[in-house]
Amino acid sequence: MAIIDNNLSLRNRNKMLVGVWEDEDKLIEATSELVHAGVKIHDVYTPYPVHGLDRIINARRSWLSIVAFLCGMTGFALAFWMIYYMYVQDWPVDVGNKPVRFTPSWVPVLFEATVLCTAFGMGFFFFLRNRMIWGIQPELLDDRQTDDRMIITVETGDHVDENQVLKIMKAHGAVELRERIAGVQTAL
Amino acid sequence: MIHDSLIRERLVTGGKTASDVTRDIARPILNKPSTAWKVGFTLSIVFLGIFIVSLFWTLWTGIGTWNINKSVMWGWDITNFVFWVGIGHAGTLISAILLLFRQKWRRSFHRSSEAMPIFAVICAAMFPVFHMGRVWVGYWALPLPNAFGSLWVNFNSPLLWDVFAISTYFSVSLLFWYIGLIPDIATIRDKVKTKTAKYWYGFFSMGWTGSTRTWARYELISLILAGLSTPLVLSVHTIVSTDFATSVIPGWHTTIFPPYFVAGAIFSGFGMVATLLVVARKVMNYENYITIGHLEAMTKIIMLTGTLVGIAYLTEFFIAQYSGVEYEQYAFINRASGPYWWAYWSMMFCNLASPQVFWFKWARTTPWFIFIMSIVVNVGMWFERFVIIVTSLHRDYLPSSWVMYAGSLTEIGLFLGTFGIFFTCFFLFAKFLPVINMSEIKTILRNRE
Q1: ipTM
Q2: Domains of chain B listed by start with CATH number
Q3: Number of domains in chain A
Q4: Residue among B107, B92, B59, B40 nearest B414 (CA)
Q5: Using a CB-CB distance cutoff of 8 angstroms, which residues of chain A are in contact with residue B232?
Q6: Is there a domain that residue A17 lies in?
Q7: Does B154 contact chain A (CB < 8 Å)?
Q8: What is the tens place of the pLDDT at every residue in B130-180?
Q9: Which of A112, A118, A155 to mutate to test the interface with B (most CBs of B within 10 A)?
C-alpha cells in the first residue's frame, strides 16, 4: 500500500461520470444503489462529513490510530533516552540530595514528549496520506463542492455500463449529470 | 429512518440551509470590516501599545520597575501567567472533552474556544519569560548541552515540567485548531474573489476537496487529537499547580491543587468563552448559530465548576485546621482576615457566591447578564491566583521579612497589555477565519436523533 493515497488525485484519469446532489439523504441512497449495482465508485465529495459514506463505498479503515500509537512509543523512547543521558549518565545534578534515577519526577516530561510525538507524527502521516501540503492546487469538480453540493464520481471503463450508472444517479435525485474527459467537464 | 427530534430544541435556528451557513458565517470575511470590528480592533491595538511601552520600560530599566521583592517574588507576574494559562487550558478542554462526549452543541463555539488557548498561551508565556530578567538567555530553560553555559536542566523541577508542558500544549493546540480549520479555509477559498485572498486561502487549505476518504481520516484524527488533548490539558494544569504544590510554602503545599486548578481553568475558560461569544453573536449576527440554548448550557457548566472551586477553597481551610500545622493554619486565617482580606473575599464572592445565580432560568437565558457574569468570573479567577500567590508569600516563616505588596504601574501595564495581545489576535482571527465551524454546523442542520 502506497503511503500517499493516489485515489485522491484526478490527474491522469480516463473518462469519469460526475453526478451532483444537493440533498444528503438522496446522495446516500444513490451511493448505496450504485454500490449494490456493482459499480465501483471512485469518490464522493461532500462539504461536510456524511457519516457512513466511507463504509458504503468500501473505503479501507484508516491505519492512523496504529500510526499514532507507534509515534507515541517513539516519543516515549526518545524522551526516556534524553532524560537518562542528561540526568543520569552525563552529569547527574544533586539538588537537595534528591534522587535522579527513574523517579516519578520523570513522568511529566515522558508524558508530554509522548503526546507531542503522537500528535505531530499522526499529523504528518495524515497530511502525507491525503496528499495535503501547503500550496498544492485543489482538484475541484464544482465551485460549490465545499459549500452545499455533493458529488459522486465514477470512473468508466470496459466493465462499466454508463447508461445504468446515469440512470441510477438520475433516479436518486442528482441535480446535474456531467462527464469529465481529460479534465474537461460537459453536461449530459 | 430519520426523525426530527421532539425532545431537543434545534441547535441551529432560523431554518438555515448549508449555503445559508456558508453565507452567514463567512460574511465578515468576505465583506469589508464592520464599524464594530474597527472600533474593537483599534481599542485592542491601544492596549497592545500599553504592553509594548511597559515591556520596553521593563527591559530598558530592569525588573526593578516591578514591585516584586524578596518575599513576594512572584507577584502580579505569575498571577497573570496562571490566569492566562487557565483561560488557555479551558479552551481545549472544552472543545476536546465535549467532542469525546459527543456534545453537538459544542459545534457553535468550539472553534473560538480552540483559538483561545493559542492566544492566551502567548500572553501567558510573556510573564515567566520576562520574569527571568535576563530574557536573552531564556533558552537555557530548554534541555540544551551544558556548553551553553548552564548544566543540563533539572528534571526534578516542576518549572522544567512547565517548559515541556506548555510548549507541547501550545504546539498540539495549534495543530488541533489548524486541522479543524482546513475544510473551512477551503470553503472560503472557493468563495473569495480577489487573487491575493484566493492564493492565501488556497495555500493554507492544502488542496482540500472534501473527498469522503479524507473526511473519514479527518474525523479519526480529530477524535484522536481530542483524546490526546484532554489528558494533555489535565497534565499541563496539574503541572502548573505543582509549581506551587511541590514547594514547602504554607498555603501552597496542598495535594488538592491539581484538581482544583483544573476545575478553576474550566471555570475561567467558560467565563472567557461566554464573554467572547455573547459579544460575537450580537455583533456578527450569529444569533441563529449561538442560541440562548448554547449560552444556557455554558452557564450551567460555569455554575458547576464555580461550585467545585468553591468547595476546594473550603476544603483547603478544613485541611489547614485538620493538619494541626500552625503555619498552615495561620496562612489561611491570614488570607481571610489579614491585610489582603479584600482580595480573598472578592475571590469568594466572584467564584463561589455569584455563579449560584445561575440556578435561576432568567439568569441563564439573558445575554447581557451572562456577559456581566462572565466578567465577574474572570475577575474572580484573577483574584484567586493573586490570593494564592501574594497572601502566601507576603508573610513567610520569618516575621522580619513580612512585607506588603502592590503591583507597580509597569506590572499593571503589562497585564492590561496582554489583553491587547489577546484581543488583537482574536479580532484578526474573526476577520480572516470563520469563528464558527461551518462544516460541522452543516451536519446538525436537520436536528437528527
Answers
A1: 0.93
A2: 18-135+157-443 (1.20.1630.10)
A3: 2
A4: B59
A5: 112, 115
A6: yes
A7: yes
A8: 988 888 888 888 888 777 666 788 888 899 999 999 999 999 999 999 999
A9: A112
